[in-house]
Specification:
Number of helices: 4
Radius of gyration: 23 Å
CATH architecture of the largest domain: Distorted Sandwich
CATH class of the largest domain: Mainly Beta
Distance between the termini: 38 Å
Shape: globular
Structural class: mainly beta
CATH topology of the largest domain: Beta-galactosidase, Chain A, domain 5
Number of strands: 30
Number of domains: 3
Amino acid sequence: MKKIRGIIGCIALTGLSVLACSGFKWRLEYPKSFIVSIRNDAVVDRTDAVISLTIREIEASYPDFNPEAFIVLSGRKETASQADDLDGDGKADTIFLIKDVEAGEGGNVTVRYAADGVIQRTYPKRTQAELSHKFGGRFVNRKYEGGEFRNVTSLRVPSEHTDHSTFIRYEGPGWESDRVGYRFYLDWRNAVDIFGKKVSDMVLQDVGLDGFDSYHEMAGWGMDILKVGESLGVGSLGMWIDGRAERVSVTDSVLCAVVSDGPIRSQIRTRYYGWKTGSGKYDLVSDLSITAGSRMTRHDVRVNGDPPNLCTGIVKLDDTQFMSTSRPAGVWMALATYGMQSLSGDKLGMAVLFRRTDLVEVTEDAHSHVIVLKPKEGILTYYYLAAWEQEPGGIQSEKAFLDYLNETVQKLDAPLKVTL
């Protein structure tokens, strides 16, 4: 009877008592738990820090952990989390959670779980990844006629597809956070473009439905704000050959997939088979991911065959300031541009962030500021970002943009320390 009266009492309570009753409910639904300790040794606060834990490392201490029935609590408050299958074997292998951590401070979160069953939690969408192409029509002279767009989780790019074929909605996969959106052209151009957002809501699901390139005109949500042309756009992958950046253009085949479309992290994976360049032929895997509250795309690349280099960069546009930032003993550095360079005629900052030890040289060609990098054992990681003045709370000056870059580099140099 005591337990029954306790439950009835919970129904009637408000305020702080509701939290206690919620805790009671959570303990019933998720009877097992463990603590995750998080420390921020950087001299800057971290808002919306997304933290990952592999299921393998969790199971080393908690072998009955169930990624299909868990919640994360920061104090008494539930915080957003997700479980992802990053290796594609059909089972979740990584969980992600989000937390604010002040400079020089630490904190704990509690992961509660049920060893059996499935209990799904839903959280506001703060990231998105999607890929959409037409069904029901056909290619005629490499243009797709008829049909309607449907979202898919993967696509092997048909040999008939090329630029402006109208087959793929906004010409490639898209990914976004509540700050900014990106896409890349899933064709021979293979360059990254930017969707400037005036709202924090997810918008890509509505882009390009009312006309093939209507997103080049300002809408309530924003617009495409970058002229890419023959350049590297922002953060596009290529190889530095004979004094120019050669994008991943000529391939035997390309397979693109949405690996994750979660509330706090989303990811696109593209496999390029038989990339032909002046120095050889390579297979490579490109993973693009974005997290809630962040402008940055993380680009993880795996390539076979020991290429002489890989390169990335930023489009060269008029009326912009080219700048760099790093810390004297730091691991990461950034190269950036800032100025009146958006297609909406206002201020836009773009940057690529990379490890100092990966750098071969900083150079340029006719179209791009180029950063030449050397993969280590076929692996390379770098980041890129865009900061548009019209985004909610957008950066309004060159100084503010440089301050933001300096803070971002400090965070990369001092990753959060996470222990179970």
